[in-house]
Amino acid sequence: MNIFKNKYFLLGNLAFLLIVIPVVLFFVKNQTSTRGSAAPTSTLSFIDPTVIADQCDNSKTARLVLNPGQNVVNRVALALKWDKTKFDVVFTPNKTAFSDIAKDAVYPPEGGSMTITLTIGPDVTKAISTTTDVGTVQIKPIAPTTKVDLEVDPVNTKIFSLSGQDGAAENVLNPGGLVPLQVAITAKVCTDVTVTPTVTDTQSQTSITPTVTTQPTITSAVTPTTTAATPTSAAANQSPTCLNLASSTSSGSAPLSVTLTATGRDTDGIVSKATFNFGDGSQQDVTTGLGTASVSAQLAHTYNSGGNFTSTAVFTDNSGAVSATCSQVIAVSGAIATIPPTATPTVEIGSISPTDTPTATPTISNPGGVSVTFGLVGGIVLAIIAGIFLLAL
Question: Rounded to two decimals, what is the model's pTM?
Answer without folding.
Answer: 0.46
